[in-house]
Amino acid sequence: MRSLSSVGPGDWPTIGAHACPDDPALRTPDGVALTFAGLEARASRLAAALLAAGVGKGERIAILGTDGVGYAVTLFASLKAGTIGVPLNFRLAGAELAALTAVADPAVLVIEARYAHLLDQLRQAAPGLRLVLTLDRPLPGIATVEEFGASGPASLPARTADDDVLLWMLTSGTTGTPRVVAQTQRMLKANTAKGVLEQGFQPGECLYAGTPLFHVAGMGWLYYAISRGAALMLLPQFEAGAVLGCLRAGTVTRCLLVPSMAVALLDHPDAGPVPQLRSIAYGGSAMPPELVRRLIETFGCDLYNTFGAGTEGGGQTILRPADHRAALDGRPHLLGSIGRPMFGVDLRLCDANGAEVGVGTVGEIHTRSDTVMSGYVGRPDLTATKVVDGWIRSGDMAWRDAEGYLYLAGRKDDMILRGGENIFPAEIENVLVEHAEVAEAAVVGLPDERWGQIVVAAVVAAPGRAPDPEMLRAYCRSRLAGYKTPARIVVLDELPRNAAGKTLRSAVVQRVAA
């Protein structure tokens, strides 16, 4: 008999199938896609078929596709089999995907049929590849995961322990050698438990994550749902009208959004109060306070601001619904905060020497918890600089007020050094987005012979507005020290973002430099 400590993420569909077999586990806008009994059956059959085909514990299963039922089934089958899931970013170019596939060297590639044109390129990049399956429909000589799973044996042995690595999360590799973050069963369990506890998810609810399943946040929400006896709404990609349709139909009760998605929903003509929507969690990048106010006024639900070190350190801080209500009740500064440490997270702010700094002083966020990564695969040198004595050095800079609320100052690498003065972009961005003409802002440093670097801002106009750069510079000058005032402000149609919705500052630098 298995001990309680050996229960892992692969067991969550099993537990759901015992407790609520006919309840929805995976939904689409068309209805219930799989019940818990169905998810358990399909994931177990696929896992057993993979094991019977000789795919062993610790081997990699790379997955390339948009969000769908087959994707979720494959993730849980990999967890059950003790193999290592490797989600690939479908938004990358073929050469980038090939570079990541070469690093992962998977034994199995599971691909959505729409990406069949990349198969030859990915096969060449993976010398250890032995099996290719599709997520949705068969291709010539290639079965779907459902067809392949149907051939599997009936029984599935227990295979995972808390120290087993179950996921490899890959960086894009566009700026150098890709980094591979190893996530253990212990890390997945702890991160899931923390999210469920903090946000109070309940059995029978339906969750929707705007971030895709290949991303740590989107995958995390799949785990929240299935571990708690709730359902996950699956959409191939975020589209404001489709999401609002699910909300207005009364199906989705919880949402995760990045700022650009929140703006798209708020600007949609169908936006309005949704009585059954219990909460919206937001994150991915700083959310301007005015945007938070619009969310509260439009949807009338609880808000959570969740912040963390992503694949490497898990969730770190949270601004809870009570904090948002306090902000509307006379403490508006709290809307600019990322909250306080999450349950089970020990957090300190440190200077460059690792010494803890005091209230009001900017320092790097260091945390320790059960959600800190095992390390970078094959890079002990890099791991040693990132995780020191169990503390992960996040690279995020913040300061703490007397009540323990944290406020982001920016990324350590994003700090601008102008004439010997340290400037953190977030401070200037927060001032810019408070102006009625500005919806979004990104501040970067450009090389300068005299000052070393100068401050330059890119802004996106608020709907129906046409901001004048010189007027915005004057506004900044009235609110900030002279050396923090942008030397130049450029108006863009949109800010360049990655798949997680975070602003790509390197791309902003290229645009404003041009």
Key features of this structure:
single chain, 514 residues, alpha/beta, Rossmann fold, GMP Synthetase, Chain A, domain 3, nine-stranded mixed beta sheet, five-stranded antiparallel beta sheet, 32% helix, 25% strand, globular, disordered N terminus
Give an account of the 3D structure.
The protein is α/β, with parallel strands linked by helices and 514 residues long. Among the domains are: 4-183, 3-Layer(aba) Sandwich (Rossmann fold); 415-513, 2-Layer Sandwich (GMP Synthetase, Chain A, domain 3). 32% of the residues lie in helices and 25% in strands. The protein has 17 helices and 26 strands. Strand 12 (279-282), helix 11 and strand 13 form a beta-alpha-beta unit. The protein is globular.
What is the element layout, followed by pairings?
Blueprint: H1 12-19, E1 24-28, E2 31-35, H2 36-52, E3 60-64, H3 69-81, E4 84-88, H4 94-104, E5 108-111, H5 119-125, E6 131-134, H6 145-150, E7 165-170, E8 180-184, H7 185-199, E9 206-209, H8 216-228, E10 231-233, H9 240-248, E11 254-257, H10 259-267, E12 279-282, H11 289-299, E13 302-308, H12 310-313, E14 315-319, H13 321-328, E15 340-341, E16 346-350, E17 363-368, E18 375-376, H14 380-386, E19 387-388, E20 391-400, E21 406-411, E22 416-418, E23 421-423, H15 425-433, E24 438-448, E25 452-461, H16 469-479, E26 488-492, H17 505-513
Parallel strand pairs: 1-10, 3-4, 3-5, 5-6, 9-10, 9-11, 11-12, 12-13, 25-26
Antiparallel strand pairs: 1-2, 7-8, 8-18, 13-14, 14-15, 16-17, 17-20, 19-20, 20-21, 22-23, 24-25
Helix pairs in contact: 1-2, 1-8, 2-3, 4-5, 7-8, 10-11
